[in-house]
Structure prediction request, 490 residues.
Amino acid sequence: MAVLRKLLEKITYECVCGTLDRDVTDIIYDSRKVVPSCMFVCIPGAKIDGHIYVEDAVKAGAAALLVEQQVELPENADVTVVRVEDTRYAMAFISAAYFDYPAQKMKIIGITGTKGKTTTTYLVKSILEQAGRHVGLIGTIETIIGDTHIHAENTTPQSYLIQKYFRQMADEGCDTVVMEVSSQGLMLHRTQGFVFDFGIFTNLEPDHIGENEHKDFADYMRCKGLLFQQCRIGIVNQDDEHWEAVTRGHTCEIETYGIDSRADFRAENISFLNKAGQLGMRFDVKGLMDFPVEIASPGKFNVYNALTAIAICRHFGVREENIKAALLQAKVKGRTEMVKVSDDFTLMIDYAHNAMALKSLLGTLRAYQPHRLVCLFGCGGNRAKSRRYEMGEVSGNMADLTIITSDNPRCEQPQDIIDDIKIGIGRTKGNYVEICDRKEAIAYAIDHGEPGDIIVLAGKGHEDYQEINGVKYPMDERVLIREILEERQK
Prediction:
């Protein structure tokens, strides 16, 4: 509970009616969840404007309304109406005040970019925990607070949820938070109300452009750059051609990292590792630090991810031995995640679920010169058919064998989706088999694995369900693999 006047101390506002000297029990932005004595925030969304629910909120007992336009109140309504220019922006500061500014009690690291955010957050968490820090995490897969893992709905949650998680993390003894920061999160002011100690830029490619997202690439790039007007130190990938545009107008110190540049942090003498089916990379860190590193993840993009994590952790005084140990141990669920089934071939789970990601992944794995590159994937139902054609064409061109199976068919027939994927493969000379049941398809891949093969199960990644006709059924590929191996042993 907090006094309304106190909640408004960091924003510009107009009190339209009522008193500011009243208690507020919670901040609510979903009209269905209004409770007595709360503040209801009227957010104009892409499809529904929260202002139309003012009467419902007042009848449910809201003590205060946060609005950005004129509203009609029920007769004799006992409610305070506070008007601001932007309710999303104001809610971020109000939420921070409501939870007593928890970000001020911890170091906050924000990572933005098209790719690499998820992996880098887990690498940073692993390294800092090796050094004895207590780290909370907010990201695409989950939020981690101590031993509690909370499934994520958005890469960057609403500002109220961020502040709630920050409060729980501080109370749990966390001294550091590492979080993914999406362009949508920045555009919609979800990360206002506090200052990041470190802002990280990984890379930029056209993505999230369209209705209800970004109108064009320039807007996408501009929103990414907002992070560098809200952090103290920016650490950016100098090899990305957009880095200067992204950081234009920055208000922070800037450090750079890269492979193909004379950056402050550099990876040199890069080599590929393949040890009994486990793929990795070796490189030398040069510049602001100087030591050799091995990572248990394949590909040049994972070198970038590791280099980013090292650059961040230098500011925390982490010793070289802690960094090296953490990078060897760190794993990210569903991101080039290797599952040991044989010393003869490699089996990997990855979230690549569009043509761009699949092309990048298969190109990375080709660098290991496998005996065969085997790609198992399906496509989601109720999504653009073009994705199916494109992924089929990519796999047909780049894999030695494609195993077409089911992903999340949703409200479509799995076989119809498979037939669309086959149209894409038909544009190539690639070999394929189709096995609709995903467990049977994985069993086929394992049973037919040959020495030197790299087999990638693409599309599901960290997901632990399969969505069919609106119902999510439990399905975790790690569990399926374990069941298959147990069945073979019997």
Notes: The chain has 15 helices and 26 strands. Residues 5 and 20 are 5 Å apart (CA to CA). The longest strand covers residues 265-275. The chain has a mean pLDDT of 94.
